[in-house]
Amino acid sequence: MVDALILGGGLAGSAAACLIARGGKKVSLLERETGPHHKVCGEFLSIEAINHLHQLGVDPLALGAVPIGRIRLVQGHCEIEAALPFTALGLSRYTLDEALIRKAEMSGAHIQRGVRVLELNGHIARTAQGEYEGRQVLLATGKLPIREQGVALPGRIEDGFIGFKMHYRLAPIAAEQLAGTIMLALFNGGYAGLQLVGRGRANLCLLLRRKTFLRLGGEWGAVCEWLESSPIVQRMLANAEPLFEKPVAIANLTYGRPSRDHTSAKVLSLGDRWAMTPSLTGDGMAIALRSAFLAAHCVLSGHDAPIYHNLLASQTHRQIARAMTIQNGLELPVLRFAAYYLARLHPKILTRVVEATRLPFWHNTL
Description:
This protein is of the alpha/beta class and 366 residues long. It has helices spanning 11-22, 47-56, 93-106, 172-178, 210-215, 220-227, 231-237, 284-301, 305-330, 333-345, 348-356, and strands spanning 2-7, 27-31, 44-45, 66-75, 78-90, 110-113, 117-121, 124-127, 130-139, 161-169, 181-187, 190-198, 201-209, 241-242, 248-253, 268-269. It has a single domain (2-156, 254-356), classed as FAD/NAD(P)-binding domain (3-Layer(bba) Sandwich).
């Protein structure tokens, strides 16, 4: 029995492990992967995420992060650019997650890698290596669901989102054009983000509806052709070298606020296990880190899961609701074109939209 059993060693799980261990509690973290690995993620660190990393003692710049100060919206042949209301950073999750899990280990958390959780039953996690129990259980497995108390995992979502991620070594001229900017390209059936996450290294992360993926033929080569239907995206990826043998992908993504009642929950759900905010806001990693701080605060204060979920809801519901409104609107061609041309007339609207989808300030007491 440990004070806190954490399932998942991504941003939320590792940050929570670090904070709870620093608070003097006995922490055990189970991570299914045996070492560093890539995840489907935009790899955009907003100002809120950067602040939380600094509070954890992690300097993204020292890890090789690159500054991002502008947003570029692409629609067909046209593009609009505006300043972000803060300086963001681009950094690979491969690097960041490993830095955080090592920070948790240095803080006193017991880390076990290569442990796959088969089922969660109350405060007991059943794995291929045996059972683990915690006075508090923190579920931080990201976009991967876990079977809970005999309930079957959710099946295929009829028209859910599919996420892809690929790293490229850009041609020098493309890397120069992208420097300091995050590019958001809008398509019929999805959208894509492109930004630098290192010297000459870019992350392409895209979401598209399952029906769009099937319509394209259901394979990555067809998705690349779909992306290159935008001349601007085609220009940026010209002569680019793919750095993965195949893209990282995940299906059945559902965005929005939690659909289930957490008032009687026994475990604390962190990050994407709590709710997935639309990727276009670039605040997914910030929400993961915020949930870690709130979870650690509740564990160290002796609060139960419902209190934690209410606190997390008060911090994230408005942000997620606004982001969902934007994402749902952009799926409609008429609204997508109207939004683009309105932003073209008044580019500062992009800056205001970014401001409107930020997390509220939270005073860290840890």
